[in-house]
# Entry
Amino acid sequence: MTGFLRNNRTILLTLVFLLGMIAFTFQGLEPKVGMSILLSGITLAALFFLIASGLSLIFGLMDVLNFAHGVIFVLGAFVGLSTLMNPRLLFNTLPFFLSAAGGVAIARHLGTPLWQRVNTERGRKILWWSLLVLAFALLAFGLRRFPIRTLNAFSITTVGGAVPTALAQEPLGLMIQRVAFLFLAGLPFGLAVAPRELRQENRRAALWKSIAITLGLLVSAFAILLLRDPGEQFILGLSVDWRFLLALTAGTLAGMLAGAGIEIVLIRPFYGNPVTQLVLTLGLMIAGTDLIEAVWGEESHPPMEPPSWFNGACRSDSLIAWFSEHCRSIDVLGRAFPTYRLFIIFVGIAIFIGVGILLKRTRLGMIIRAGVQDSEMVQALGINVRQVFTLVFALGSGLAALGGVIAAPFLGVFSGMGQIFILQAFIAVVIGGMGSYTGAAIGTLILGLARAYGDHFVAAGIDLPFLANTIKGSPAIARASTVLIMAIVLLVRPAGIFGKKE
Amino acid sequence: MNNVLEVHDIQTFIGQYHILEGVSLEVPRGSITVLLGRNGAGKTTTLKSIIGLTPPKTGAVLFNGAEIQGKPTFRITGQGIGYVPEHRAVFRDLTVEENLRIAERKKGDLALRGDFIFNLFPDLKRLIKLPGGHLSGGQQQMLAVARALVPENTLLLIDEPSEGLAPVIIEQMIEAIRQLSAYTTVLLVEQNFIMASQLADRYTIIESGRSVKSGQMADLVKDGDTIRRYLGAT
# Structure
């Protein structure tokens, strides 16, 4: 028991401190007001956590400060919104990704003998760049005049109902040409990223495997293209719950894909060069926002339609009643609280536990925890750390994108929605201690509560014991309070609450 | 093939610094070979160059007769090289068991060699559930060596196992390395000449990034001149 207390001293002290603060703030408040502020704070914390956890893992393992993380959050929200409201974009772009991946899969297998023939460093550099230029040229040629903006146009005036676009579909023949071009573009890219040397395994079996994967990807690409009209009708005919689930999946997958792409193309060539990586992710933050505006437009969209489970026009008395009634809000100590926010809290907690189990119980988690301390040593044990890096980047980005989809019915969807969140998530990670998973959770909890209480007290004013007048502040003070907390924490513990001293 | 490892005239740069200016050495199968030399001579860099953590710019490294230089580190060590870095880099947040399990290359490696390992280091069995960071310096060193024994390795690279340890623990360490060398070949970096002379069959001396002398340890012990000239101690 004493051992347990000693080992978990930091977390226990922090929790006691937090509880004390909450109890203290409750004193001047009606219980129902205090409770609703508390729940709002935890809702915010859950959203912050979905971003901060990935940020913290990526920094801990790879020492990369990923500013592009906020863009992934926005990307998730937009992909989710598109899936929910207008699946046409998905049906028309998914085949591109699949066929390009097919090209990569087969060329990656065939590329190894090519690289073995080119032995000099200079020759390899020239080959790498010419393959890359060829890939992008084919990509640009294939996608020229692809009307992504019009394909994606959807009316936003009728919130709550899916709105098929009035515009005609792109002709099928043209789309098949594009898919073929993207397959060709995948080939040089696959050659470029092919392993540089043969492994001992059975080449023939590996070849058949690559061919099977490529064929599978191509067949599904064409299947999606051919079935796009009935498919679109089918998805639009689904209930909003199914479409929401689909939106969650599509958004998360898009985030993972984008994350893996960013790591492979932009981050991987620059390990050991943190300034370059920092500038690249900063640039990506700006360019990514513009890119999202280019595809989805600059206008902001009202909150996405939540699943029907959280959308009934009524007010449940308790959680049990909500299970049968599916009301929009629930009675908390006499005050209405949106049930969708409870869902956000639930997702946040579920992800916290799920990723925690992944880290604690699986081999991958073991490698991640070891790599956070010393990735060189992990590599020296015969483990391909670079692969784990890509995986963690994809995983962290997937979490951020999931956060984006989850936030969409709560915040609305607009290209700047990531900016507040990325900043707060950074502050939370710094408070909790860079690279610490528990730290990210505690840091986001502190920030979420601080924001919620800050907003309340700014509006309601604070009565201090020895002052006659109530002190009122501007909302800017509530926002600044998080930075103030960070400053105080860093003064006491320079590495953050759970940070390790080097 | 008589030599597990052959290093031919490797040159290594770290940043702009020319650290190794020509190191060659041989490690015969079944032997304990020790790298000697003053602080900063390039002994640790030699080990790191062998497994590609600081890849050599020129020269060749042969492991079981096949060239391995230029390959990624995980491929090199994956062929059967165990690396025990200086400052005993055990993973602080992982338990002793996890520290061992992470080194598994095939499922069941630990189950297969667990008895041998815990025979060598009985302390570790008792501490199995403790985080690596809670162990004493000596225990961490044992764990670092034990970790290199988990997968099937034909060569162990051990960097300064005696550094910062109490004399009693050093005795234990010497005994453990002697026992494990019955199963694998060892390349050792050691400042402690007494420990080195008790353990090693062969030696290579490195001076300012060059290998200057190699031979049988038994001959070196008698050669006071060489010891004074390159190692500065008795």
Observations:
- The first strand of chain A starts at residue 312 and ends at 316.
- The radius of gyration of chain A is 25 Å.
